[in-house]
Amino acid sequence: MDETEVLIAGAGPTGLVLALWLVRQGVGVRIVDRSAGPGTSSRAMAVQARTLELYRQLDLVDEIVGGGLRNPAINLWVKGERRTRLSFRDAGRELTPYPFVLIYPQDRHERVLVHRLEEAGVTVERNTELLGFEQDAAGVTARLRGPAGESVCRAAWLAGCDGAHSIVRHRLGTGFEGGTYQHTFYVADVEVSGPAANGEIHLSLEEGDFAALFSYDQQGNARLIGAVRDAEVREGHTLAFDDVRQRAIASLGLRIEKVNWFSTYRVHHRVTGHYRSGRALLLGDAAHVHSPAGGQGMNTGIGDAINVAWKLAHVLRGRAPETLIDTYEAERKAFAQRLVETTDRAFSFVVAEGGFADFVRTHIAPLFASAAYGIEPVRAFMFRVLSQMGIHYPDSRLSAGSAGHVRGGDRFPWTGYGGGPDNHAPLAAIAWQVHVYGEVAPALHAWCAGRGIALYRYDWCDACQAAGLVRDAVYLVRPDTYVALVDRAGERDTLEAYFTTRGIHPA
């Protein structure tokens, strides 16, 4: 019987990121996937700013950004005219070092993650299927079938990163409540030319039709998506790209030079009942699926992986009680439910049929979007939502305190705009740390040294105030770069009580 600390079923971005973060923390992993190799089509395209921030922890961000296309804006087109351009750079430049949506095809993305994992000494076991598992209080016994036949693996934890048809979720019986949209949608990787082939995102809204174009380089290679109307879906007929060329595509002035890949699919919106059952966990599409509106799916799965990775490492090393794992569901499920609701509303609006729906979509929506985006607080809010920087855990039992505009559970704000310090640089360490902007009391210095927690002090500056921080306050930051505790007084006893009451040993 093979043994490991964490058995990961599924080697998509979620499973690969989980493996990388665990290995970096010294946790033994085994990762299996039933496919013969990484995907060869682009599938998920968008890498959001929050994911790029987190990728700094493994020195991944420069390679990922360098391999993708920084997409600076979304353009809304109606009946062949561009009605508005929404700039990410204007909205996010004060919030993050990455004020853009990175378009980076999933197949390339996966190859980078696989290579990094191999450099760390872990190889994805391909053509290896999880058949089933049993669990007890100490771990999971899993049955696998690979090229050499069936085998058994004993693991302390099982992570189900095995997609929307997850065998882990099915065996746990945690359900998958939600529904399926009535429309059939198409997705194609194409080579295009024309005015919209300029490296930006373009959404074309027409009466009874829509199309979205995501360029992933400057040579005309792009992803095109849209809806297949019921009249085109006929019994016994296999859809091809010629069946779904509609006027929304023509309205962008696109010339389709070549179709490299084409597929149709139905869109689901579902969330599992529980993210954890005993020693088994669900992550990514195994836990939640939703419409592709906003490019949130892959990024949400990656966020799941990073959220739970440090908690698993703490528990496996005896630095926290097993109940710490319960905060994974408490934090991530609430976000997934909100995301499903939000993308459901957005997607339903885009595909709604009928005269009134067409009028609102083609006349009212572009005017409203342009006007709203011109208001700075609205622009920043919209960017926070799209970029996933707005994800926060205020109700988590790991979140405490507040000062200024920052409270426990928030993403730790960035102060690097306008000449301020890059306070996110130390977050590359997957570890607890304390930040102070101003003066540090000697007692706090001594407490951090005694606890083995890094203390970072920065001079107070205008950028600190603009980021919502408070002078001389203490910010305890979690290993996943979220704020755990804010204490305006900077008392070491408050910090000590935070860990003592939760049974956590930070170092």
Keywords:
FAD/NAD-bd_sf, Glutaredoxin, 24 strands, D-Amino Acid Oxidase, Chain A, domain 2, seven-stranded mixed sheet, FAD/NAD(P)-binding domain, 507 residues, eight-stranded mixed sheet
What does this entry look like structurally?
There is one protein chain. The protein is α+β, with helices and mostly antiparallel strands. The chain folds into three domains: 2-68 and 105-176 and 272-339, FAD/NAD(P)-binding domain (3-Layer(bba) Sandwich); 69-103 and 179-268 and 352-390, D-Amino Acid Oxidase, subunit A, domain 2 (D-Amino Acid Oxidase, Chain A, domain 2); 402-502, Glutaredoxin (3-Layer(aba) Sandwich). The chain has helices at 13-24, 49-55, 61-67, 88-92, 106-119, 167-172, 247-251, 297-316, 326-351, 355-373, 376-387, 442-451, 462-466, 492-502, and strands spanning 2-9, 29-32, 46-47, 69-71, 73-78, 81-87, 101-103, 129-136, 139-146, 149-160, 177-193, 201-206, 209-215, 221-228, 255-271, 276-277, 280-282, 288-289, 402-403, 406-407, 433-437, 454-458, 474-477, 483-487. The chain is globular. One of its GO terms (molecular function) is oxidoreductase activity, acting on paired donors, with incorporation or reduction of molecular oxygen, NAD(P)H as one donor, and incorporation of one atom of oxygen. Residues 3-342 form the FAD-binding domain. Keywords: FAD, Flavoprotein.
